[in-house]
Design a protein that fits this description.
The structure is a single chain. The chain is built from seven helices and no strands. By secondary structure, it is mostly helical. The chain has a single domain, classed as Up-down Bundle (3 helical TM bundles of succinate and fumarate reductases), CATH 1.20.1300. 22% of the residues are buried. It binds protoporphyrin IX containing FE. The site of protoporphyrin IX containing FE has 28 residues, from helix 1, helix 3, helix 4 and helix 6.
Length: 203
């Protein structure tokens, strides 16, 4: 692998966890406040939306890293060769799903940002529980959000495994197995938080 490509792959991997992965978990936890009532939700969402330098934070912590990760991710997804012989069968499927879920994430995120953040910026909506009730009470969006959250959380959980392996944090088969369990646990817990929120708004 050429030097610059190696650097880009490393950066791609790192950005998936810090800051993007951290942002996603934080975002799902804040939204989960709806379970404690509308007032709690509006307070939590209002706190995030009124952080100082919120636009600069969004640009440097979310948009730029995400654009880099998404562009290189699409490139990887469409040019990668599947090393059928080199990996265990299950790992190959995990890899395949990593790419599919990345594409689902991209479609969802573009739509979701348009439907929420851009509408707020245009003055068509306010960041509060009503906006999400309006969206999630429509069956199409309800299912679109459920499927996309599952895909994105899978992508993060499985990506975490890829991250600890490719950065040399988990080298022995034993520690790689340990991190497989961690990744399943992350998938279950974070999916629960996300899905519970969608159900609260949508049903
Ligand atoms: C926006 C659309 C996205 C696309 C197209 C995408 C694509 C990809 C692809 C293709 C890989 C595998 C890289 C490889 O096989 O070497 C990957 C890895 C990863 N992605 Fe994404 N991704 C997206 C969004 C996200 C989001 C929202 C998160 C956080 C929840 C995320 C977190 C990760 C992590 C942690 C990895 C593993 C890094 C590693 O392999 O070391 N990605 N992404």
């Amino acid at each position: 692998m050429e030097h610059r490509e190696y650097f880009n792959r490393r950066l791609h991997s790192l950005l998936g966890v810090v800051p993007i992965g951290i942002f996603v978990v934080q975002h799902l936890i804040i939204n989960h406040f709806i379970v404690y009532g509308e007032e709690s939700y509006n307070k939590a969402a209002g706190f995030m939306g009124n952080l100082p330098f919120v636009l600069a934070l969004e640009i440097f912590v979310i948009y730029l890293p995400l654009i880099f990760h998404a562009v290189l991710g699409v490139y990887i997804a469409f040019t990668a060769k599947y090393n059928l012989g080199n990996y265990k069968f299950g790992r190959n499927w995990a890899f395949f799903f990593q790419r599919i879920t990345g594409i689902i994430a991209l479609i969802f995120i573009v739509w979701h940002v348009w439907q929420t953040r851009v509408q707020v910026a245009l003055g068509n909506a306010e960041v509060n529980a009503d906006m999400m009730y309006n969206i999630l009470q429509q069956p199409f969006y309800f299912w679109f959000y459920i499927i996309s959250i599952l895909a994105i959380v899978y992508h993060l959980a499985n990506g975490l495994w890829g991250f600890v392996v490719s950065w040399g944090i988990a080298q022995s088969p034993k520690s790689q197995r340990f991190f497989s369990y961690v990744s399943v646990l992350v998938f279950v817990v974070v999916s629960y938080i996300g899905i519970r929120t969608v159900i609260e708004f949508g049903l």
